[in-house]
Amino acid sequence: MSRTPPLLLTGARLLDPESGTATPGSWLLVEEGRIAARGTGAAPVREDAETVDLGEATLMPGLIDAHVHATAFSADLGAAADQSASYVTAWAATSLSAMLGRGFTTVRDVGGADWGLALAVEEGLIDGPRLAFGGKALSQTGGHGDFRPRGRHGSGGDGCCPGAGLVCDGAVEFRRAAREQLRTGAHHVKVMLSGGVASPTDRIDSTQSSEDELRAVVEEAEAANRYVTGHAYTARAVNRGLRLGVRCIEHGNLIDESSVELFREHDAFLVPTLVTYHELSRKGPRYGLPPESQAKVDTVLHRGLEALRMAHEGGVRIAFGTDLLGGMQEHQSNEFAIRGQVQPADAVIRSATSGAAELLGFAGEVGTLQEGARADLLVVDGDPLTDLALLAEPERGVRAVVTAGTVRRGRLGA
């Protein structure tokens, strides 16, 4: 097998997400898919390297979306249960490829993707970002992962499109289900802590999964050196999950100051997903969102920004997520613009790079320009620290996407 020559990128503005600074007149050396060295001023002379002058473009880590559903081809998750697994996989491949094109070099799927999809990406069968998966999300009967219409009875089964959810009842079933996800190599286990928008029979303000059920899942995840992430909206549901050992909360639109204190106390993460409510409000019915779900959107839509502001000002660890379904996934990058209304650009970028990497357990591996990290990189025309729209509009701002030192989209040179 031929050895890939080193890649030396010069004339770069290196964006360091940890410090929130950008250093012009810099260079970065990639060897064997990893960052070998970096510096400012004159670049080292490497006759064995391919050398590219970036023309003072920004060089930054590839982006991380910590809340995607790669297999969710429709907003009607109940109807998706009847679709062919082959079709779902083909749709997921298209979805993941588009995410890579927007600059996302790592994504975390929190309900839908399984070990086979992750392996297909790793082996190059699917052209997409590195995929951290959780397998099936665990839900009680009648919970957010149970998508049966009110009149359908019997077992909840998988409850959703292939691989997305599993209905469980009782600590024994939750424990067995958690072990099954972990057996397949899941990076995390997801549980439903409250009602949700896309599920047909639960209330947003409900709490879900008993304390014994949640303790069983947390215990199994910790035993496997993994973590539990929980879907929750209200402060009551969020606080309950945090006290029981859930390490990450998805959404959290209806949190309060007591929640902020608990996030800090438990060193837990929050993953807001604001863009999905904007798009569900505008286009949900067009992409299959049932009427009973559409009626729930306004409940969480208008509180999301205030919850993000509260969490940011309170020092909560925040990661970037989008949670878009079906054709609405094309608006993934708009999350940057929405968050930029209440957070400074450096904080938003950190949430989509080094901050998200910490949540996923990939700190020092991705989301950073540290030496030794995987060379997942973006070349951006301009400075996202002063113009966050460059990431919100990747077709305008992102010149090239690089994974493990290989150009996957665009071009390096000006």
SSE topology sketch:
Layout: E1 7-16, E2 21-31, E3 34-40, E4 50-53, E5 58-61, E6 63-68, H1 85-101, E7 104-109, H2 115-122, E8 130-133, E9 137-139, E10 165-167, H3 171-183, E11 188-192, H4 211-223, E12 227-234, H5 235-243, E13 248-254, H6 257-266, E14 269-271, H7 274-283, H8 291-301, H9 304-313, E15 317-318, H10 334-339, H11 345-351, H12 354-360, E16 377-380, H13 389-392, H14 394-397, E17 398-403, E18 406-410
Give structural attributes.
single chain, 414 residues, alpha/beta, Urease, subunit C, domain 1, TIM Barrel, 2 domains, eight-stranded mixed sheet, five-stranded parallel sheet, 14 helices, 18 strands, 24% strand, globular
